[in-house]
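Structure first, sequence second, as always.
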């Protein structure tokens, strides 16, 4: 267990620093230290470690999608590692994955860039609170407050939408009418981009961007929740992930109350 955890964090350190590494080489080297462990069993354990980190709202290895239903002993080993190395994430917070300066690629062949949303096995289980005690940084909030990252993601989706309408729907006329609404009209609309479906009906797109993996959570505002409910037939949330390396996205269509588990994160207060 400790060997698997140590090997996982060695890979994660390289990934967050933008240093290439080989998962296969790590897997082979780790199996040489263990007895009768298959390649698949080691990968399974690494996916479990990703799930432990996801449930703590901490960055995980994107190539090892979180797999829930792990042993408590594994969770204890992960938390012990982080307790022993409290600066692990802090030393990497300005790296190219956590703080991408540009998209890894521009959108092309748009059909291959869209994936299904995370399923229950690969997302955080219901009822897991955002702990955030193992790092000084709240990475979910950090994504939400990174205006440069948000703008880069919106610009990427603007280009994606134009290509989708032009190439997939054969509607170059609609592609020219895609609007970066949050820039033209300002924040507060509850969505970022006004686009179209192939039949010319509206598509209102809220973009959420991260350099991290597909299952990593994101913030939504109360206004976005309200607007998504009021315009459910048109509302789309585009979750753009692994932005600085190999950007892809998944789409949530309709009211956010129906597509997401929403956890209250703050309250507006005034003195009585």
């Amino acid at each position: 267990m400790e060997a698997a955890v140590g090997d996982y964090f060695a890979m994660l350190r390289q990934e967050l620093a933008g240093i290439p590494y080989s998962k296969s080489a790590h897997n082979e080297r780790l199996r040489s230290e263990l007895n009768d462990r298959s390649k698949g069993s080691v990968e399974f354990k690494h996916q479990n470690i990703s799930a432990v980190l996801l449930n703590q709202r901490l960055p995980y290895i994107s190539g090892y999608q979180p797999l829930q239903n792990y042993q408590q002993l594994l969770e204890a080993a992960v938390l012990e590692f982080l307790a022993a190395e409290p600066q692990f994430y802090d030393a990497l917070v300005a790296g190219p994955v956590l703080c991408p300066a540009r998209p890894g690629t521009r959108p092309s062949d748009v059909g291959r860039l869209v994936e299904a949303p995370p399923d229950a096995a690969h997302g955080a289980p219901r009822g897991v609170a955002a702990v955030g005690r193992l790092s000084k940084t709240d990475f979910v909030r950090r994504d939400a407050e990174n205006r440069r990252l948000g703008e880069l993601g919106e610009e990427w989706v603007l280009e994606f939408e134009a290509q989708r309408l032009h190439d997939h729907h054969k509607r170059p006329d609609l592609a020219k009418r895609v609007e970066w609404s949050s820039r033209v009209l300002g924040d507060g609309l509850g969505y970022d981009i006004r686009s179209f479906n192939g039949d010319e009906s509206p598509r209102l797109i809220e973009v959420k961007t991260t350099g991290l993996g597909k299952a990593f959570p994101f913030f939504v505002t109360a206004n976005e929740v309200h607007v998504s409910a009021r315009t459910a037939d048109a509302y789309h949330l585009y979750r753009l992930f692994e932005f600085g390396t190999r950007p892809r996205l998944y789409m949530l269509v309709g009211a956010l109350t129906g597509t997401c588990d929403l956890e209250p994160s703050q309250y507006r207060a005034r003195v009585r």
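Margin note: The first strand starts at residue 193 and ends at 196.
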